[in-house]
Amino acid sequence: MGRKYDDEQYDISPFNSVTDHAQRIQGLSNKRVNLAQLPKWLRFFWYAIAGAVFVGGIFLMIALLFSGK
User: Fold this and answer.
1) Which of 57, 53, 10 is nearest to 33 (CA)?
2) How far is residue 15's CA from residue 22's CA, in Å, rounded to a whole number?
3) What confidence score (pLDDT) does residue 1 get?
4) In this structure, is the dihedral angle defined by the CA atoms of residues 45, 46, 51 and 57, taken in order, positive or negative?
5) DSSP character string of 12-40
6) Computed over its alpha carbons, how large is the radius of gyration of the chain?
7) Could you tell me if 32 and 50 lie in one domain?
8) Same domain, 69 and 45
9) DSSP type of residue 4
10) Which structural domain range is residue 14 located in?
11) Integer Cα distance of 51 and 44 in angstroms
């Protein structure tokens, strides 16, 4: 159904000592989320939120364009 991804492709190495320290001390994940592996309801929720933000941004730009100020 979804595409398979290698875990190595999504490894994010720390780019400085501060993020390296945060990942070691706070236990932050260094891997990106693969949306294809999430449950369908969670993917739908993500797409709905991202779509609402995108459409809201478009409406905001149109409103500012026609506000006349």
Assistant:
1) 10
2) 12
3) 45
4) positive
5) ---SSHHHHHHHHHH----B---GGGS-H
6) 19
7) no
8) yes
9) P
10) 1-37
11) 10
